[in-house]
Each structure stands twice: as structure tokens, then as C-alpha cells.
Amino acid sequence: MVLFLFSTWMRFLAVRLEWMRALPRQPEAVLSELIAAARWALSLGLFGGLLAGMGYAAREKVFVPAAVSCLALLSLGFVYGIGQSLKNWENVPPALSPVQSLGGPGFILASQPGKTAIVLLQGPAEAAGPRVVAIPGQPLLYQEEFPGRDSALTSLLPAPFEDDNPWFLKSLAIDLRLNAENLRQRLDRGALSFLVYAGALIFLLSSLIFIMKFSAWPLVNTVLGCLAFRGVLAMETFFNSPEMQDAFDSFLKNRMSLFLTVPLIFCGIGALAHLYSFLAHLAKRQDDNAV
Questions:
Q1: What is the pLDDT of residues 144-179, one digit of tens each?
Q2: What are residue 23's phi and psi, to 5 degrees?
Q3: Is pLDDT of 96 > 70?
Q4: Which residues contact 206 (CB under 8 A, 6 or more apart)?
Q5: What is the side-by-side order of every strand in the sheet holding 107-110?
Q6: Is pLDDT larger for residue 141 or for residue 188?
Q7: Maximum CA pair distance of the chain?
Q8: Is 62 exposed, middle or buried (0-12, 13-18, 19+ CB in 10 A)?
Q9: Cβ(221)–Cβ(57) under 8 Å?
């Protein structure tokens, strides 16, 4: 829950900043931004919570079947409860949501100090209106209208922001957003569809608890668990892509409902992982008895 609340707030700030950069002509309700941030944070909380719980169970040597069952049930209840609450909040009319203005005339856009800055003379409400562009080492440039309309100024970016975030962080954020969208679509179809999909995903993630016992160093196990969870997230994005859905549809030919395809794949991989853990446990017990 702490991870969910913290990531919701951080994601809300990031979405708010992106909205300010996009400069919409109409103000956007804060509630809709907060719901979008909470959905993204719900996916992060699901993966992060399971990873932290499995790491704790492995360090404390908790009975694996009991630990996996408790983590799976708690995670499923947490995801369903928060998802249902967010769905209910979406029904609040936008007119009842508080709206916060971005700023007035003289609003300054700048990626960071010392970089190119743009001053919107009429504020964000008239983003395409007159502006003053301040480029380091050059005189101030006045533009009467949006620079994209003037062919002589095509080399000048209308809002030159830099994105220095590493690609792996951006790809992780994108995949978490896609996971949140998949969960939302399943919830819109009904509780049964959501529980089947979320339960299969949690079953797959919880089957990776054996990774948390690879090394005697907890930090190494945590890193390996993060990599494994990142692979599951990428696999989910791949299987839910339109191309793969079309491939599943053409292969199944209405022999099975399409929305069950990905959950069955998750269950199959998770069952294999649980079988591996069980066989490895039996082999270790035989070695201990032989000694």
C-alpha cells in the first residue's frame, strides 16, 4: 500500500508535468489525472509488492506453498479492490472535479536553467499566440504566432524540452501503463474476466519465488527477481499486442474464447515453474538425507 500511494503521487506529478508541456487549450480535470496515475501505480504496486513479499518469505524461510498462497490472495484482493474503486471514481462528472490553471500571461517554458526558454505572452490558454524565445547567446526573438506556421522558422522547436531518461526506464513505464490498460479493459468486461486475467498473472509471478533462493546474498536475489519480473512484463505486452492477438485468433479459429488465451499461457508457464520448484525441493531433500 505504501508503494502504491508513493508511486501514485510520483506518477501524478509526472503526468502533470507532461500535461503542462503539451499545453492543452482546455483545462483538464485533476481527478482524471489522478486516476490515470493510480492505475499506473497499481501495476507497479502489484509487481513490486509481490517481489518484496517473495523476497521476505525467502529470507525468513517461510513454508513456500503457504507464502505463495497468501501472497497471491492478498495481491488479487488488493488489485481488484483498488481497480474497482478507481472504476467507480471514473463515474464522477468532470464538472465536479476541481480544475487547476496552469498559469497566466508571461508563462515561461524551459527544460532547465541555461537552456532555451519560451515566454507565452498570453499564457497557456493561447499557446499558439505571441511569444518570446530566449536562446542562450542570441538576442531575444519575438514570434507573433506559432513558429510552425512560418516556413522561415521551421528549424526552431516550438517547445524545446530535453528527455534524458534512460530508455530502459521509459520502456518500463510504458509497459506498466500497458499492463494497467489491460487490467482496466478486463475489469470493464466484468469481474470474472478481471479475476481470471489478474489471477493468472499473479500465479505466474508467484511461481518465480525459486529465483529468490538462487544466491546467499539477498541483494543478488532481488536483482534477479527484478529482471525476471521485467521479463514477465515484457512478455505480457508482447502477448497482448494486436499482432499476437490476430495470430491467436487465426490459430484458434473460434475454438476457444480469445480472452482466455493469455491467461492460459500464464498458467502454463507458472505451472512449469512450480513443478521445477517442487522437483528441485525433492532433489535437495534427497541429497540432505543421503548426507
A1: 765 555 444 444 444 444 455 677 777 888 888 888
A2: 55, 65
A3: no
A4: 50, 54, 68, 71, 72, 75, 270
A5: 107-110, 117-120, 131-134, 141-143
A6: 188
A7: 86
A8: middle
A9: no
**Buried-state track 147-175, b at ≥16 Cβ within 10 A, e below 16:** beeeeeeeebebbeeeeeeeeeeeebeeb
Contacts of 73 (CB under 8 A, 6+ apart): none
User: What angle do the packed helices 191-206 and 30-59 form, to 10 degrees?
Assistant: 40
- Would you say how long the chain is, in residues? 291
**Per-residue pLDDT tens digits for 228-260:** 999 999 999 899 988 888 888 888 877 877 788
Residue among 35, 42, 45 nearest 15 (CA): 35
Q: What's at 196, amino acid-wise?
A: V
Q: What residues does each domain of the chain span?
A: 2-97+165-290, 112-153
In angstroms, the first-to-last Cα distance of the chain is 44
What average pLDDT score do residues 101-125 get?
A: 62
Phi, psi angle pair for 123, to nearest 5°: 85, 175
Nearest to 12 by CA among 29, 28, 35, 45: 35
Segment 23-62, tens digit of pLDDT: 444 444 566 777 777 888 888 888 888 888 888 888 888 8
pTM here is 0.68
> Distances in Å between the alpha carbon of 289 and those of 85, 187, 280, 282?
51, 49, 14, 11
Between the CA atoms of 168, 169, 171 and 177, what dihedral angle is there, to the nearest 10 degrees? 160
